[in-house]
User: What shape does this take?
Amino acid sequence: MAKISKKRKEALAKFDKTKVYALGEAVEVVKSITYTKFDSSFDIDVRLGVDPRKANQMVRGIVTLPHGTGKVTRVLVLCTPDKEDEALTAGADHVGLDDYIDKIKKGWTDVDVIITMPSVMPKIGALGKILGPRGLMPNPKAGTVTMDVGKAVAEVKAGKIDFKVDKYGIIHSGIGKVNFSSDKLMDNVKEMMSTIIKLKPAAAKGTYVKSIYLSSTMSPGVQVDVKSVS
Assistant: This one.
């Protein structure tokens, strides 16, 4: 059996694992049980009453958090020369095409998001085995395959995130930093949940949002009363 660290014991002693907390209380608990020396991420886990194996119950979406994620997002734009200035002006960290495709083929993936244009996708298709497993493959549904590359870059830099339900029916996402104010974290949670609820598949039966947990990097999860989020 794994040994529980002193810090984790202290964290577990600060709240009731069997209790379902109102959103505001849950946020305060997570902030109080975070002991990392670095700026911890603030995460949400939402269990949905869907069967992700069925295409008509897949939940995937995009949300722009009102207060961003607190994370510096490194953006690569793979585009034709006429779009390079637009991407750079919007704040892209890397802009180019064939030179970056060659770098990626050699194993370079030191970015968080890749944005490209529809006309360039045939070239990027060959990178699927490298980008796919890392979650970096551009996707029209995620807004990362577009002619409006400047707008796409600006949205990502402002806190737009792409999420989808995993094979267990859970959506997991970072939605801020523990050092955010409680009000900002609550706003981000509510925006995330509002988007998830709007994406409820017509084929989903029974309870859609089964549970919500909040946590920080390495902290225990704190369960949130679903009704307190609406």
Q: What stands out?
A: Residues 66 and 187 are 7 Å apart (CA to CA). The chain is about 30% helix and 20% strand. Helices lie at 6-13, 23-32, 84-90, 98-105, 121-125, 128-131, 149-158, 182-198.
